[in-house]
UniProtKB/TrEMBL annotation:
This is Helix-turn-helix. One of its GO terms (molecular function) is DNA binding. It comes from Caloranaerobacter azorensis DSM 13643. InterPro entries: Cro/C1-type_HTH, Lambda_DNA-bd_dom_sf, TransReg_Diox_bact_type. Pfam families: HTH_3.
Amino acid sequence: MDIGEKIREERIKKGLKQCQLANKAGISNTYLSDIEVGRTTPSIKTLMKIAKALDVDCTVFLKPDN
């Protein structure tokens, strides 16, 4: 599972729509969508914003799959 898939999984767990998470993280909905489907990889700064908006540690997205 890549970073975007992990972000999407956490977003759904929290019951947020893409537009809600994008707004909380201060990024565009289009950019979040591109991250979630793997068209782009977020910078560390953006990843930290998304993690904060989801109230999780950013390492959640970086851990390898088992």
